[in-house]
Each structure stands twice: as structure tokens, then as C-alpha cells.
Design brief:
Helices cover 41% and strands 19% of the residues. It is an alpha/beta fold and 702 residues long. It folds into three domains: 7-319, Spore Coat Polysaccharide Biosynthesis Protein SpsA, Chain A, CATH 3.90.550.10; 326-500, 3-Layer(aba) Sandwich (Rossmann fold); 514-673, Glycogen Phosphorylase B (Rossmann fold), CATH 3.40.50.2000. The chain is globular, with a radius of gyration of 29 Å.
Length: 702
């Protein structure tokens, strides 16, 4: 459907999937220049190509080597190279083309492409020989083996490389292959007990949740694979036992596993593949006939390993991820946006903690009406299965049909937990039901009512309190984020099981010291009303005092959904940043962070975040609550406008105090809020439930 540069007339195949129809149209527009033309005059796709030069970047130390073995099909090769040129981002890569004695115009076409390495075989030696020759010539840390009958899409190389960062045990990573008509071609492969292979999801809708998250698989197609170069060399490259082709990719995957690494399918790397262009589809002749021959060879080599696999077609949904033993389902209000608000960051990190404990994690955003292109994909790329409309129509119905699969169900925030906890209790018979409060909503509303003297808010707080207590009574355990909230909750409901599971953060390098920094920063999502109140309080009551004491200090305000009432205060001394995608540069240069929170509950992510960068914090008592922070050691605490301004000046002017606070803040993160701490907390919570179940079983047996 998409042979090359542009179409003057073409009968397009009707695409079945709207998302991928749009994707492929965007690829066409981007790849193909209006100055070139290809005419498809009949259903057999008679082509008149006109090539034009490409110039690839020349890196002396490429990180990635893209190896393209080919025989003839110059049109497809050019299209493949053009897509690489347009869609590989800022990666340092080299392209190595192995021309396996083509007898068409391939050599002429390649002459006009600069910056690539071309290796020409004097005789046709097949896919395995050519791939291995390319690998031996490669300089990159990673090798990508790529068929010439492919079109790569935006972000493909980042997604492949990042999989090795996100999964340290990764040894081989494959891609999502789609047909030119938008249907799914492959979402990883399954090898059955008789060594027959099956590509998962063929001809289906590629947007379905089951095909859209990174997971461990038996193998991925050699049409596009990434592997560390040293690993590939150590494993002996593709084995010529399978010459000329077929099963060499499957055998490589099994050898990777034997070498104690894993094979992953990465759907964030989307490749259009013109299947059958290189070798045809008829298994009775040509290279394709070796598919049957090599299946027997593969079985003879790996028959012992295959004994644990199911017979052909049995338990498909389990065989697609045969190594999963524990499953967790998390239901929250919306898709986590970790660069927008503290609650999202905690949830995003909590999902990863479940993964670290060996759980396959599935996630549902109860109030999300559509797939969130950016943030849902971020979760899927790291292996979190996300369910979304139109493929998910009813959460209770999903729990009814699939709830028995789960070992843990976590319901986040009281309005979500209250809505679905009865269905979870009914249909998730094997699961521990956790109610994650995020913070005690009633406590936050109660404190807001005290400041505003609003009877309506106070009445809501009383209703919220009963709602949270009633929901907690139905859960196996209620999760609270601070010791202060645990103490309060135990006074209200002493018989309800509770546990601590706080914010989760990772310390960053503190790049610059005291002398290289200036100004103060407030960061927080402004959909959260305590943040709006905090900024109005600071700007109107604290900042004028601070400005009189130290007029050179500027206030930087960072956060999503900034209201006009705050933005209206912009001046030379109050800098409105709004949403900032990358906060690291800000924290590398800011001297102090502030948390002038007057009401709230839970643990303040803005304080955690600042401390991870080594930026000292001036906070109110409410803001610092439940974080094991000591005034003058880990943080500076003040509640009146005058004292708050004085504490800012004190830390701003005292290098030794600033340095001590910086070091102590990071130590506080390591001690109370690190991934290791959260893993231990969650492990204990889940183990306590398992111990209780075992004790109950023993009692029944007695």
C-alpha cells in the first residue's frame, strides 16, 4: 500500500483501524516529497520510482547500529531508509546495508545515499550470513536488525533503546508489527510444545489493550530486533544451522534466555511491515520452504525447554506471558500524569513497585473517557497493561469476567473505592482488596472549613469522613501515607486494619552548590485547591514582607492548570512558569523551595520532590506534617507571614545552613520515601494478608 515517495493516483486499501489509518497517512505525508511520483497503474502495483539523495548523520561513536540485509526490492529499501532518516530522533546511529548480490537497481540507488555503510556480497548467501556480516562490522552498543521491507515510525528507536533502561534484565527486544492496511501483524510470538510458532494477535485491531503493553515473550520476529552488540557476538550471532533463513530469530531468543536474560515485546516501537516481500508466503518453495525444515531443527535442539510449553493453541491467554505468576489490578480516577501532580507521581511509582515485587500490573482509569496518548503509552512502555474505552465498557462487568485472575486489587481514592469495592469483593475472590486513601480527604476538607469558616465545606467533611470509614471497613487493608494519619485513623476506627504506604521518590544528583543558585520556587498542580490557597496566601501576605527584606529574590511559580487569579500576579519579581515538562533545570539552579500550605492532608510531594534535588524547603507545619522532618535540621518551618519570610532569608543567606538542609533532605528521602522503603512496605502488607489466609486455612483444617 505504501511503496514510496508520493502517489499521483492510487487506489488506497481501506484501513480497518482509525488510529493506524491516521498514523500511516502521517507517515506518507512526512516521508514522501511532492517533487517525486510513483504511479500504481493496476492492482499488481506497477511502479515507476524516482529516487533522490539522502544524507545520514555521520557519528564516529554511534550508540546504535541499524543493520539492513537485503536482496533486490530497491523501492522498499529506499522507503525503509527514508523512514529511518525521518523518524530516528536524536539518537546516535549508523546504518549498515548488506546487499546480498542484488541484480536490480539497488546498487545505483544506494550510491546516492550518504552516510551509510554498504557491504556487497559477491554471491547470494542469504539472510543469516548477511545479518551476521553486518553485526561484525557494527560499532554501536546496540544492534538493530531490520528488514528492508519495513517503514519505521516516530519514536521507534527511543522505545527500543529505553526498554533496556527500563528492564535491566532485557537481552532482546522486538516491536509491534502492523500491516500496511493498519491491521496488526504481530505483538510478540508464542512457541508451542511441538516447536510450531504463532504470532500473537495477527489481523486484529492493534490498539487493543492486550497488544499494547511491554511484556516478556517467547520470541519476536526478526523483521526488527534490538540486542546489545556484545551479547549478540557472545551468543555467536544468528546460527547458520538455520541457513538460509527461518527460526534463526526464535533460536536467538531461546539462547538469550539460556544466557539468563529476557526477551521483550515493545509496542512503543511500531513498524509497518510488508510481510512476504522478501521471501514470499508459499512454504512449498523458495526460501519460505525452510520454515518447515527449520522447525524440525529447532525442535531437536530445544525439545527439553519446550516440555513446559502447552500444546498448540492451549491456554493462549496464559501462554502469551507464561512467566506471570502474580497479578495486580489498580483502579484510580484518571491516568497518572507524573509530571503534573504529586498524587500521579506516587501512583506511577507505586505501579512500578508492584512490578518490582513480581506482579503483572493492570490499570484502569475509571473516569477517563478515552485513551491518553502520552501518559497511557508511558505506562504501557514499561509493561503496565491499561484498559480503556472502547475496549472497556464497564468496570463491574470486567471484574465479573476477569476478577478471578487477580491476587491484589487496589482501589485508589475514596470515591473510586466506594464505587467499586462491592464488585471487587464479589468477583475477585482470590484477591486482597486494598483501599488506598492517597490522603484522608475528610481531614483536608475539615481543615479547609476551619480556615474559611464555611459551614457547607464542614458538612461535606463530615460526610466524607463517614464515606472513608465505611469504605475502609470493607477493605482487607486501608493504606495511609503518613504516621500522623495512621494515628488519627486508629482513633476513629481502631478495629480497621491499616498500613503505611507513603510517597515514593528517587534522589537526583545535586548538580550545583549554594553559590550557583538564586531565587525561590513553588511547585504544585493547581487543580488541587490547597495549592491555589497557598499561592494566594504567599503572594498577598508573605511576599511583600520578603521583598522588603531581600528585594532581589524572585518567586518562580510552576504547576499545571494555573488559574488566572494567580497568573495575574506576574511581574518582574513573580515569574509565572505554569506547566514545565522538564523540571530538572529549574531545580538545578533554584536556591529554595517553599510550601506555604495552610490546609491539607497526606504527604506533600512538593517537599519530597525538592529534597530529591537537594533543594532546601521552607514549609508550614501542615505542609511538613507526617514526614519525619525536624525544624532546623531537615527543613525550616514557619506559620506566620513574618516568620515564613524570615526563614526564607535565613536559609537564603547562610551557606552552611543551606548545605546542611540540602544533605539532610536527601537523607530523609532515602530513609522514608525511597523505592526500597516502599517495596518493603508493600511486601509486608501483602505478606501479612497471605499469612492471615494461611492461618485461616490451617484453622479450618484443624
Amino acid at each position: 500500500m505504501i511503496p514510496l515517495i508520493r502517489y499521483s493516483r492510487i487506489a488506497l486499501v481501506i484501513l480497518k483501524t482509525d488510529g493506524f489509518r491516521a498514523l500511516i497517512k502521517r507517515i506518507i505525508r512526512k516521508l514522501f516529497s511532492s517533487s517525486q511520483a510513483i504511479q500504481l497503474r493496476n492492482p499488481h502495483y506497477s511502479l515507476e520510482p524516482r529516487y533522490y539523495p539522502l544524507s545520514f548523520p555521520d557519528y564516529s561513536d554511534p550508540e546504535i547500529s541499524i543493520i539492513i540485509p537485503l536482496y533486490n526490492k530497491s523501492l522498499y529499501t529506499f522507503t525503509c531508509l527514508k523512514s529511518i532518516h525521518e523518524n530516528s530522533g536524536k539518537n546516535r546511529y549508523e546504518v549498515i546495508v548488506i546487499d546480498d548480490a542484488s541484480d536490480d537497481d539497488t546498487a545505483v540507488m544506494l550510491e546516492d545515499i550518504e552516510g551509510i555503510t554498504v557491504i556487497r556480497n559477491t554471491e547470494n548467501k542469504g539472510f543469516i550470513f548477511s545479518s551476521n556480516a553486518g553485526a561484525k562490522a557494527a560499532k554501536g552498543r546496540y544492534i538493530v536488525l531490520l528488514n528492508n521491507d519495513t517503514i519505521v515510525t516516530t519514536g521507534w528507536l527511543d522505545a527500543l533503546r529505553n526498554t533496556f533502561m527500563d528492564f535491566p534484565d532485557a537481552g532482546l527486544v522486538g516491536v509491534k508489527l502492523i500491516y500496511p492496511d493498519g491491521r496488526l501483524q504481530e505483538a510478540g510470538g508464542i512457541v508451542w510444545q511441538d516447536a510450531s510458532a504463532m504470532v500473537y494477535g495477527r489481523y486484529d485491531d492493534p490498539n487493543k489493550p492486550e497488544y499494547s503493553y511491554c511484556r516478556e515473550v517467547d520470541y519476536c520476529s526478526g523483521a526488527c530486533l534490538m540486542i546489545p552488540r556484545q551479547d549478540f557476538l557472545k551468543l555467536g550471532l544468528f546460527d547458520d544451522y538455520y541457513t538460509p533463513a527461518y527460526y534463526e530469530d526464535t533460536d536467538l531468543a531461546f539462547r538469550v534466555r539460556k544466557n539468563e536474560k529476557k526477551v521483550y515485546y515493545q509496542p512503543g516501537a511500531i513498524i509497518v511491515h510488508f510481510e512476504g516481500v522478501s521471501s514470499g508466503t508459499d512454504i512449498s518453495r523458495g526460501t519460505k520452504q525452510f520454515q518447515v525444515v527449520n522447525q524440525k531443527k529447532f525442535f531437536n535442539r530445544w525439545k527439553d525447554a519446550l516440555k513446559s510449553h502447552c500444546a498448540n493453541g492451549v491456554r493462549l491467554q496464559f501462554e502469551k506471558e507464561r512467566n506471570i505468576n502474580k497479578r495486580a489490578l489498580v483502579i484510580d480516577t484518571l491516568v497518572p500524569m507524573p509530571d503534573n501532580d504529586s498524587g500521579s507521581l506516587r501512583m506511577f511509582n507505586l505501579l512500578q513497585v508492584f512490578q518490582r515485587l513480581g506482579y503483572k500490573v493492570s490499570f484502569i482509569a475509571a473516569n477517563e473517557k478515552d485513551y491518553h496518548r502520552k501518559y497511557t503509552q508511558e505506562m504501557q512502555k514499561i509493561g503496565i497493561e491499561c484498559f480503556y474505552p472502547p475496549y472497556l465498557t464497564s468496570i463491574p462487568e470486567y471484574l465479573k469476567s476477569q476478577g478471578n485472575l487477580y491476587d491484589v486489587v487496589l482501589l485508589s481514592r475514596v470515591h473510586i473505592a466506594e464505587k467499586f469495592i462491592d464488585a471487587a469483593r464479589k468477583y475477585c475472590a482470590n484477591a486482597m482488596i486494598l483501599f488506598d486513601t492517597v490522603d484522608l480527604h475528610f481531614l483536608r476538607e475539615q481543615r479547609q472549613a476551619e480556615i474559611s469558616q464555611d459551614k457547607h465545606i464542614l458538612a461535606n467533611a463530615k460526610m466524607r469522613k463517614q464515606q472513608e470509614l465505611n469504605t475502609a471497613c470493607k477493605a482487607d487493608k486501608t493504606l495511609l501515607v503518613s504516621p500522623a494519619e495512621i494515628e488519627l485513623f486508629k482513633r476513629e476506627a481502631p478495629d480497621v486494619p491499616v498500613a503505611l504506604l507513603s510517597n515514593i521518590h528517587q534522589n537526583h544528583e545535586t548538580v550545583f552548590g549554594y553559590q550557583a543558585r538564586k531565587d525561590i520556587l513553588f511547585i504544585g498542580g493547581f487543580e488541587h485547591l490547597p495549592n491555589v490557597d497557598a499561592m494566594e496566601f504567599f503572594i498577598t501576605e508573605i511576599f511583600p514582607i520578603l521583598h522588603d527584606l531581600k528585594p532581589e529574590i524572585r518567586l518562580l511559580i510552576v504547576g499545571s492548570h494555573l488559574p488566572d487569579t494567580i497568573a495575574a500576579h506576574a511581574s518582574s519579581h513573580i515569574v509565572i512558569k505554569g506547566y514545565v515538562e522538564d523540571i530538572k533545570p529549574l531545580f538545578n539552579h533554584i536556591k529554595l523551595s517553599i510550601a506555604p500550605i495552610r490546609y491539607g492532608a497526606g504527604v506533600k510531594g512538593k517537599i519530597n520532590t525538592s529534597m530529591t534535588y537537594g533543594v532546601p524547603v521552607v514549609a508550614t507545619t501542615i505542609a511538613a506534617e507526617g514526614m519525619n522532618l525536624v525544624h532546623g535540621k531537615d527543613v525550616l518551618i514557619a506559620d506566620t507571614p513574618e516568620d515564613f519570610a524570615r526563614q526564607i532569608v535565613l536559609a537564603y543567606d547562610d551557606e552552611q545552613l543551606w548545605t546542611n538542609l540540602s544533605h539532610s533532605g536527601k537523607a530523609n528521602i532515602d530513609r522514608y520515601f525511597s523505592f526500597a522503603v516502599a517495596e518493603n512496605q508493600l511486601r509486608t502488607i501483602l505478606k501479612e494478608n497471605q499469612d492471615s489466609e494461611n492461618a485461616a486455612i490451617q484453622l479450618i483444617n484443624v
